User: What shape does this take?
Amino acid sequence: MKYLVCISKTPETTAKIAFKDGNSTFDTDGVQFILNPYDEWYALVKAIELKEANGGTVTVINVGGAGNDTIIRKALAIGADEAVRVNADAKSGFFVAKQIAEYAKANQFDLILLGKETIDYNGSEVGAMVAEFMELPYLSYGTDLQINEGVATIKRDIEGGSETSKTSLPLVVSAAKGMAEQRIPNMRGIMMAKRKPLNVIEPVACEDLSIVVSYSLPAGKSSVKMIDPENMDELVRLLQEEAKVI
Amino acid sequence: MVLVFAESQNGQFKKTAFEAVTYGKKSAEILGTTCEAIVIGKAENPAQLGQYGANKVHHLTGSGFNSFDSQSYSNGIAGVAERMGAKLIVVSHTSTGKSVLGRLSVKLNAGSVSGVNHLPESKEGSICVKKNVFSGKAIAEYKINTPNAVFSLMGNTLKPEQSGTDAELIEVQLEDTTVKTEVVSVDLQQGSAAPLPEAELVVSAGRGMKGPENWGIIEDLANVLGATTACSRPVADTGWRPHHEHVGQTGVAIRPNLYIAAGISGAIQHLAGVNNSKTIVVINKDPEAPFFKAADYGVCADLFDVVPRLTEAIKKAKG
Ligand SMILES: Cc1cc2nc3c(=O)[nH]c(=O)nc-3n(C[C@H](O)[C@H](O)[C@H](O)COP(=O)(O)OP(=O)(O)OC[C@H]3O[C@@H](n4cnc5c(N)ncnc54)[C@H](O)[C@@H]3O)c2cc1C
Assistant: This one.
């Protein structure tokens, strides 16, 4: 089996969010980037688990500049066999999905995995787009995945519960908590990652259908009103009359 | 025309469906057009969507629409959108909506924005819309570069508004033979509280609870309010609470009207998933807990003492 895992880069979770050029661009100055946790913890580790159980190869793909090689090497250190970087600025989910789909079509994967969303733009769009470009089934928010004789059984999170579906391969699945357990790369993995292939390819032409034109910061909260712990009636009154939420 | 995909479950419309139609109607007014809805599979009285602003309701049934398959659903939605010349398609930002949004964008070559929480604007002929990014730490304005657009609407962005009368119902019978995915089972949690992403009232607790055996006071508080329970990540990771209750940057992102947090420190990754709540109440015994900075109301005290008394006070106020 051939597994493809789409990985992306996001600002570290405590990063300070600021903008420049008249609030049109995210200011990456001093921001540390990490492998998107859902891609790393769930999608990548699941692919590695499947490979360990059934054999095959795990390829990771990222769309981005040379600055992304650090996070790509981390994915290799965790256990991917090879990596591909599409050398282009990832300006929209549509653009990214188009690049991944082009590569995947040419290279025939059985299973394409990605995280349920990125923690910066929280778009959750790329998986469905890749699936549509390739006319493949897509299951989002997967928490369990079994493959038996060419039939995939996927359990996925839905509002208020879970849903289990059966479908055919090849297939695109986005992974959520429960799909796999985070793995910390060990020394051997880190050393081996340096020798694993990281192929850089050029993008195919693709328009951005929607783009961010400006950013703003949310209005700050006015300061907190402290309530006397002995007077919960007062808190209830405020929630009813001032906040009007109960 | 603005086309809204209104989701139903077991034949009943979800709250998010009414929100989406209300949003569609308001968007249609802004864009100078009308609003129609599309309903797929079993649905009770689809024409009622007219009361929320849909002029017409397209009701799709037939093989391929009996259970959720993102391919057949998006084929169905795209078919109606193309036939009726939809300028904007609105779906809910739910597990179903998110699974079709990207497909519709590709199918219709329409610019997409996922998780919008503002109404669209028309600027120099282009559709623009805002959404939260960086887990609520910023707002981004998107411009659509194509004549038509697809949005998924974040839950609790607006309240459903009922004013009109029933819509004209158009029954569409379709045979989609391309179906590859079949739902074999659906497991819904017991209990009457709304699922977290849709909940208007949420009571949440963290490591300050000391252990899973102490959750009774949180459940009691949630019960008197009719609220849904949630928790911080370490609580879900250690198995004190089920993982679907985990809120935050790597859990569920929520935006209820009221979020009560007891024994949660307010780490930045936790705040990222809850800071869009309209009103936040924090109960923590540490006056330096970072959560107080993000709160509207704070109670600095032992939660084991305060939570039961808050429950009593609510009971009393509710009579
Ligand atoms: C990449 C990454 C992603 C993460 N994602 C998330 C996420 O999605 N969601 C999330 O929640 N966390 C997330 N975290 C973890 C986060 O950083 C915090 O560790 C976590 O939120 C802390 O949980 P807590 O507040 O329950 O526990 P603690 O930080 O231990 O806080 C417990 C609080 O309870 C108070 N307390 C104790 N006893 C009492 C009492 N008797 N009465 C009143 N108050 C009391 C204490 O004063 C303290 O403030 C993430 C971390 C990383 C690195």
Notes: Chain B has seven helices and 18 strands. Residues 15-31 of chain B form the longest helix (17 residues).
